[in-house]
Write a structure and sequence with these properties.
single chain, about 130 residues, alpha/beta, Rossmann fold, 2 domains, three-stranded parallel sheet, two-stranded parallel ribbon, 7 helices, 5 strands
Length: about 130
C-alpha cells in the first residue's frame, strides 16, 4: 500500500497540469492507495480556496476519489460521516472534527454558527466554551 500526499489527490482531481495529472493517475492505478484524514482535509481546502470550486463540486470530487476501489481511507466511517455533514451544510473541517470526536461524546467550541448548524446533524453534545 502507498500513502499519497495532498498534491497527488488534487492533481488527479483538478487535472490542471497534464504531466503531473498523468503521473498522479499512474500512482493511483498502481495498487492500493492510502489517504489520511489530513490529506483529504487539505485537499478539500485547496479545491475550495485555490481552485474556487463550489462545495457541491468539491463534495463530488472527494466522494469520487474515496470511492475508488483501490483507495483505503483512514477512519472510513468518520470520513463518510464528515462527507455527509459537508453535504448537509457543515464546513468540511468542522464535520471532520465532529466525526473524529464521536468517542468523546461532547465537543466544545467558540463557534456559535457551528453549534447552530451541527446540533441538527449530530448526536454529539455541542458545548459553547
Amino acid at each position: 500500500m502507498l500513502a499519497v500526499d495532498t498534491n497527488l489527490v488534487v492533481r488527479l482531481l483538478a487535472s490542471d497540469d497534464a504531466a503531473q495529472t498523468k503521473r498522479a493517475a499512474a500512482v493511483f492505478s498502481g495498487g492500493q492507495i492510502f489517504i489520511s484524514k489530513t490529506v483529504l482535509l487539505e485537499s478539500e481546502w485547496v479545491l475550495r480556496f485555490s481552485y474556487e470550486l463550489s462545495p457541491k463540486i468539491v463534495l463530488q470530487a472527494l466522494r469520487n476519489v474515496v470511492g475508488l476501489p483501490n483507495v483505503v481511507m483512514e477512519q472510513p466511517s468518520a470520513i463518510a460521516e464528515a462527507l455527509d455533514g459537508f453535504e448537509r451544510g457543515l464546513d468540511f473541517a468542522d464535520a471532520l472534527h465532529l466525526a473524529g470526536s464521536r468517542r468523546a461524546g461532547r465537543f466544545a467550541t467558540f463557534d456559535k454558527k457551528l453549534i447552530r448548524r451541527a446540533e441538527k446533524l449530530t448526536d454529539i453534545e455541542l458545548v459553547l466554551a
